[in-house]
Amino acid sequence: xxxxxxxxxxxxxxxxxxxQIDGQFRVExxxxxxITARLLVNEGHLRPGGTVSGxxxxxxxxxxxxxxxxxxxxxxxxxxxxxxxIDFLRKPAAGxxxxxxxxxxxxxxxxxxADALIYSExxxxxxxxxxxxxxxxxxxxxxxxxK
Length: 147
Known about the structure:
Elements: H1 7-17, E1 25-31, E2 34-39, H2 54-73, E3 80-88, E4 98-107, E5 111-120, E6 126-135, H3 139-146
Antiparallel strand pairs: 1-2, 2-4, 3-6, 4-5, 5-6
Protein backbone atom coordinates (compact mmCIF):
# COMPACT_ATOMS: atom_id res chain seq x y z
CA UNK A 1 0.00 0.00 0.00
CA UNK A 2 1.30 3.43 -0.87
CA UNK A 3 2.31 6.11 1.60
CA UNK A 4 -0.31 8.90 1.61
CA UNK A 5 1.29 11.01 4.38
CA UNK A 6 5.03 11.61 4.16
CA UNK A 7 7.41 12.71 6.93
CA UNK A 8 6.56 16.39 6.51
CA UNK A 9 2.79 15.76 6.56
CA UNK A 10 3.01 13.47 9.62
CA UNK A 11 5.10 15.95 11.61
CA UNK A 12 2.77 18.82 10.66
CA UNK A 13 -0.25 16.72 11.71
CA UNK A 14 1.32 15.91 15.10
CA UNK A 15 2.21 19.56 15.72
CA UNK A 16 -1.27 20.77 14.77
CA UNK A 17 -3.47 18.08 16.37
CA UNK A 18 -1.30 17.14 19.37
CA UNK A 19 0.32 20.37 20.64
CA GLN A 20 0.79 18.75 24.07
CA ILE A 21 3.61 16.59 22.66
CA ASP A 22 5.20 19.31 20.50
CA GLY A 23 8.97 19.09 20.53
CA GLN A 24 9.08 15.59 22.04
CA PHE A 25 8.63 13.36 18.98
CA ARG A 26 9.65 13.59 15.34
CA VAL A 27 8.96 11.25 12.43
CA GLU A 28 12.20 10.78 10.50
CA UNK A 29 11.24 8.19 7.87
CA UNK A 30 7.97 7.14 6.27
CA UNK A 31 8.09 4.73 3.35
CA UNK A 32 6.67 1.45 2.10
CA UNK A 33 8.65 -0.45 4.75
CA UNK A 34 7.31 1.54 7.71
CA ILE A 35 8.42 4.54 9.71
CA THR A 36 11.13 5.64 12.10
CA ALA A 37 10.19 8.06 14.89
CA ARG A 38 12.44 9.79 17.41
CA LEU A 39 11.89 10.63 21.06
CA LEU A 40 13.91 13.77 21.75
CA VAL A 41 14.93 12.75 25.26
CA ASN A 42 15.02 15.45 27.91
CA GLU A 43 14.95 15.59 31.72
CA GLY A 44 11.17 15.09 31.74
CA HIS A 45 11.60 11.61 30.22
CA LEU A 46 14.04 10.35 32.84
CA ARG A 47 13.40 8.31 35.93
CA PRO A 48 15.64 8.10 39.01
CA GLY A 49 18.99 6.67 38.00
CA GLY A 50 19.04 8.64 34.75
CA THR A 51 17.39 6.13 32.44
CA VAL A 52 14.48 6.85 30.10
CA SER A 53 11.21 5.90 31.79
CA GLY A 54 8.98 3.07 30.62
CA UNK A 55 6.05 5.43 30.00
CA UNK A 56 8.26 7.56 27.73
CA UNK A 57 9.30 4.48 25.73
CA UNK A 58 5.67 3.37 25.51
CA UNK A 59 4.69 6.84 24.26
CA UNK A 60 7.33 6.61 21.53
CA UNK A 61 6.02 3.22 20.45
CA UNK A 62 2.44 4.52 20.44
CA UNK A 63 3.32 7.62 18.41
CA UNK A 64 5.32 5.55 15.93
CA UNK A 65 2.55 3.01 15.34
CA UNK A 66 -0.08 5.76 15.12
CA UNK A 67 2.00 7.56 12.49
CA UNK A 68 2.65 4.32 10.59
CA UNK A 69 -1.10 3.77 10.32
CA UNK A 70 -1.78 7.38 9.33
CA UNK A 71 1.01 7.26 6.74
CA UNK A 72 -1.16 4.74 4.88
CA UNK A 73 -4.74 5.89 5.57
CA UNK A 74 -4.33 9.67 5.86
CA UNK A 75 -5.09 12.08 8.72
CA UNK A 76 -7.77 10.13 10.57
CA UNK A 77 -7.27 11.60 14.04
CA UNK A 78 -9.71 9.25 15.80
CA UNK A 79 -7.68 6.14 15.00
CA UNK A 80 -7.02 4.76 18.49
CA UNK A 81 -4.99 2.11 20.30
CA UNK A 82 -7.08 -0.93 21.22
CA UNK A 83 -4.33 -3.28 22.40
CA UNK A 84 -0.68 -2.90 23.36
CA UNK A 85 2.11 -5.05 24.72
CA ILE A 86 5.64 -3.90 25.44
CA ASP A 87 8.73 -5.84 26.45
CA PHE A 88 11.58 -3.86 28.03
CA LEU A 89 14.75 -5.61 26.92
CA ARG A 90 17.61 -3.53 28.31
CA LYS A 91 18.37 -0.15 29.85
CA PRO A 92 18.51 2.68 27.27
CA ALA A 93 21.83 4.48 26.89
CA ALA A 94 22.12 7.61 29.02
CA GLY A 95 21.93 10.92 27.22
CA UNK A 96 20.74 9.47 23.90
CA UNK A 97 17.53 9.97 21.95
CA UNK A 98 15.43 6.88 21.31
CA UNK A 99 14.37 5.69 17.84
CA UNK A 100 11.36 3.50 17.12
CA UNK A 101 11.49 1.48 13.92
CA UNK A 102 7.92 0.52 13.13
CA UNK A 103 6.33 -1.73 10.53
CA UNK A 104 2.72 -2.47 9.78
CA UNK A 105 1.94 -6.16 9.90
CA UNK A 106 -1.71 -5.86 8.84
CA UNK A 107 -3.83 -2.96 7.66
CA UNK A 108 -7.49 -3.83 7.30
CA UNK A 109 -10.68 -1.79 6.99
CA UNK A 110 -11.19 -1.46 10.74
CA UNK A 111 -7.99 -2.73 12.44
CA UNK A 112 -4.26 -2.24 12.01
CA UNK A 113 -1.55 -4.32 13.68
CA ALA A 114 2.05 -3.16 13.92
CA ASP A 115 5.25 -3.70 15.82
CA ALA A 116 7.97 -1.31 16.88
CA LEU A 117 11.53 -1.92 17.98
CA ILE A 118 13.01 0.87 20.09
CA TYR A 119 16.74 1.61 20.04
CA SER A 120 19.05 4.03 21.79
CA GLU A 121 20.49 6.25 19.08
CA UNK A 122 23.69 4.67 17.76
CA UNK A 123 22.99 1.19 19.16
CA UNK A 124 22.13 -1.95 17.20
CA UNK A 125 20.51 -3.68 20.20
CA UNK A 126 16.85 -2.86 20.85
CA UNK A 127 15.88 -1.59 24.31
CA UNK A 128 12.18 -2.47 23.89
CA UNK A 129 9.76 -4.28 21.59
CA UNK A 130 6.14 -3.26 21.29
CA UNK A 131 3.14 -4.78 19.50
CA UNK A 132 0.01 -2.67 19.03
CA UNK A 133 -3.42 -2.90 17.47
CA UNK A 134 -5.30 0.20 16.37
CA UNK A 135 -8.98 0.66 15.61
CA UNK A 136 -9.67 2.64 12.44
CA UNK A 137 -12.98 4.55 12.53
CA UNK A 138 -15.46 4.48 9.64
CA UNK A 139 -14.39 8.07 8.87
CA UNK A 140 -11.39 6.50 7.09
CA UNK A 141 -13.68 5.35 4.29
CA UNK A 142 -14.82 8.95 3.80
CA UNK A 143 -11.19 10.14 3.50
CA UNK A 144 -10.31 7.34 1.09
CA UNK A 145 -13.30 8.21 -1.13
CA UNK A 146 -12.09 11.82 -1.39
CA LYS A 147 -8.66 10.86 -2.78
